Amino acid sequence: MTDLHSSEAAHEPDRTPDTLDLSGSKDVVEGGCSSTGTMKEAARAAGKNEILDQYEADYPVGPHDQPQSMCPAFGSLRVGLRMKRTATVLSGSACCVYGLTFTSHFYGARRTVGYVPFSSETLVTGKLFEDIKEAVEDLADPENYDAIVVTNLCVPTASGVPLRLLKKQINGVRIIGIDVPGFGIPTHAEAKDVLAGAMLNYARTEVEEGPVAAPKERSDRPTVALLGEMFPADPVVIGQMLEPMGLAAGPVVPTREWRELYSALDCSLAAAIHPFYTASVREFRAAGRPVIGSAPVGVDGTTAWLQSVRDELGIPQAQADSVKNAMSAAIKGALAANPIKGRITVSGYEGSELLVARLLIESGADVRYVGSACPATPWSERDREWLENVGVHVNFRASLEEDIAAVEEYRPDLAIGTTPVVQHAKAKAIPALYFTNLISARPLMGPAGAGSLAQVINGAIGNKERFDKMRDFFEGVGTAHASGVWEDTPIDRPKFRKKYAALNEAARKAAEAVGT
Q1: Are strands 86-91 and 147-152 parallel, antiparallel or unpaired?
Q2: Residue 191 neighbours by CB distance under 10 Å
Q3: Residues 6+ apart with CB under 8 A from 55
Q4: What global pTM score does this model have?
């Protein structure tokens, strides 16, 4: 992590910091990250109405509240760090920036993350924006970068730091400023769309203004651009399915370099493989490109998806039918050779949960529940209908509590989910797999995807006896206040907790009243 503007910090006199009051009672949610109401009100008062209204339209939180997930800015940070010749600069609280950079490097970014710190003074006087502007100007070297992404985290967004006033280009380097507050973006998955959409918008404007750099590789066939991060083999498999129809797979958005954005926008059709890329879809439509949903997973999903491609691009039906028949036969064979038996619940926050559930069901699994932290969109509708028609309960914007409740209700042979869901299931001696690392890190599309999950799924289900042994071995060690092995088990004293909680609240209110 590089501090891009901290030389003045050491010379500031001691002073009482100016702060937003983010502590609170039941009326004001406690804690910086969870102070959604307070932060959002401050951001609107500071002139961020337009961007917050757009986020509410693009990423609605109903029917449930914002799900529990990692900091949303991790998603946009990940997109920027994976792009070649792209610099990333964060402006936010030091603790937030530390956590984000730690997580990004844990995932193998191996890139420097720029940081523009702030004090109470620079925040309230507007100097923070000047510091950001200076940092960007210092970084804008066309020998090293095609673009610089500047991201406002929660506090700068709530304070109205106007990244829109940054120059669009410095020394030929593109400048892209985005706000990614936790109180405006529900999940890190959707934050990927915030940056991908902003980059597509910038690239589309460049194309409209005149000639742009040609992509390194350009197909001589009409292409289908793919929306959503996928296992590396999946775009290759999709390309193999499209080839007999006279088509080619286009770039995957988010892209790995800037010129791929032009190639993506030059597609004949965009496929929202991950259905939550709302801002990106808007850019493809603005470029006059049609968009389809779902994905070529399993027999039904593959044939329906190929038919959608055919309908949008006017491919001869006989040609499309030939491809569908060949793919169906290959997928049926792979599924039959790799059956999955057992009851499974599926939950996650990547956006591909419904696709995974479809593939599991066609593999023979008894899937009762699918929970996704992402919202329902028009591009997930076909998958929702298919799942509900076979008796699956589909839950968008699922909360952790709902995912855990599904494990309790359905008592599956295997629970697939986020870390706390996996933890809960294993504590109940139910085999469980972490969705992000063990499920979405496998091919899902076409014949390659069919059967790809069987080994890990069946292996996990086969571990049930080991879980029973562990549960029996640790039986009696206690939970909560009684965790551990004791000669005299501690006695829970809820009245003490209630008494001191009340005293602490009274002291807090007394401190607030001083000077009023």
Answers
A1: parallel
A2: 28
A3: 184, 185, 194
A4: 0.86
